[in-house]
Each structure stands twice: as structure tokens, then as C-alpha cells.
Amino acid sequence: MDFEVGAGEVFGLLGANGAGKTTTFRMLCGLLPASGGRLSVAGRDLRRAAAAARARIGYMSQKFSLYASLTVRQNLRFFARVYGLRNARQQERIEWALEAFDLAPVADTDSLQLPLGYRQRLALACALLHEPQILFLDEPTSGVDPLARREFWHWINALSQRGVTVLVTTHFMAEAEYCDRLAIMAAGRILALDTPRAVKRQARSAERPEPSMEDAFIALIEQELSGEEAA
User: Fold this and answer.
1) Which of 47, 73, 175, 181 is the most buried (most CB within 10 A)?
2) Residues 52 and 77 in one domain
3) Which residue has the higher pLDDT, 55 or 119?
């Protein structure tokens, strides 16, 4: 597997469950040891300078790694400390998060009591407290309603425009259209790596002159499976 992601790019990883998306993310974040090859994040070699690389990374897991018994403000304070923010800087970033993500009205509410959309906002705010250069989002919109999903992608685009590199995994084909480039994976291998338009173009046929992203995804997976059977 070989790919590069540029600064300010929104890069998507698509694949069915078990394709290797989350494992790839965890390796890039330094949460899992690399199974092989070379991993460089924000100009830092993860094998030699993992701590320096992680300091430049924000990570939002699929399960929203929040502490249910803590309030919104307490969660923000906890993650600020984890990221090394102290004193006035810590308070400044917490106040920024409460305002930027409209969390001030629920600042003293336990995160367990929040609607899913608000928990999503809080998890993203926590991942951004230390102003990372690269943001990893592992299926961040799973389970949320379409309006919350659209709002979330508005934040992603705003971050990209400010130069933050965003890598996102998703199983929603429509979300893949929002990425600058994407990789379609199966069994730890990349089957396609290009812009959404170019990936769809690969699936054109007489029966499907204008294939959707779902059409392209299915065609690539079927082609991979037929190749395995032939082998």
C-alpha cells in the first residue's frame, strides 16, 4: 500500500468492514505498530519520532472517545491536558471550542446525556484543541442524521481551507464525493486511488455510462473478487 496526502487535502478511505481502513488509520496515528514499510506523518517518521508526529495529529475515533461521566467542559479540559495545554492557553482553547461548536449551552451537561450530534461536535472539538496539522476521522458520521452529517462536512471543508489535512474513513458513498481524492480498499490493498470523478470514470460501461460512486465501488470489489477466483 503506497499513498501520499498533501497539506490541506481531504483524503477519503473507502472500503467494506474488514477492508483495513481503521487499522491503516491507527498505524498512521502511531496507535498500532506498522506492519511494514515506511510511515511518515507531518514530516516525521513514525518509526523514529512517533511522539513528535502524534503532537501534530488530531484523532476522532468511530466510537467518539469521550468520558461519559464528565461534562462537556470537563471533557475539553481533560483532552486539553492530554495535549499539553496549560493555564491561559488551555482556557483560551476551551472557550474557542465551546463557541466554535455551539457547545456553551450544554457545557455543564454530562456527555452521556448529549444527543448524538452534540457528542459528535464535542469529539471533533476535543481532537482540534491543540490545533493539529493533520486530522484523522474514523467514520465520524456513523449513526448521525443527514443534517448533522452535512454540518460535519461543512466543518471539514472549513478546516481544509485553513490548511489542515483531513483523512477520513466512511462507508457512505455520498460522502466520498466530498473528498479531493480517495482510496478504495479491500483486504488491506488499494484498488483505486484518484479523484472521485476519475474513480467513477473507471466504472463506465455501455450499461452504466454515468456510474455513481456506489457503482464504481461495487465494480472494483467485484473485479477484485473475480481476480482472486481466477487465481
Assistant:
1) 175
2) no
3) 119
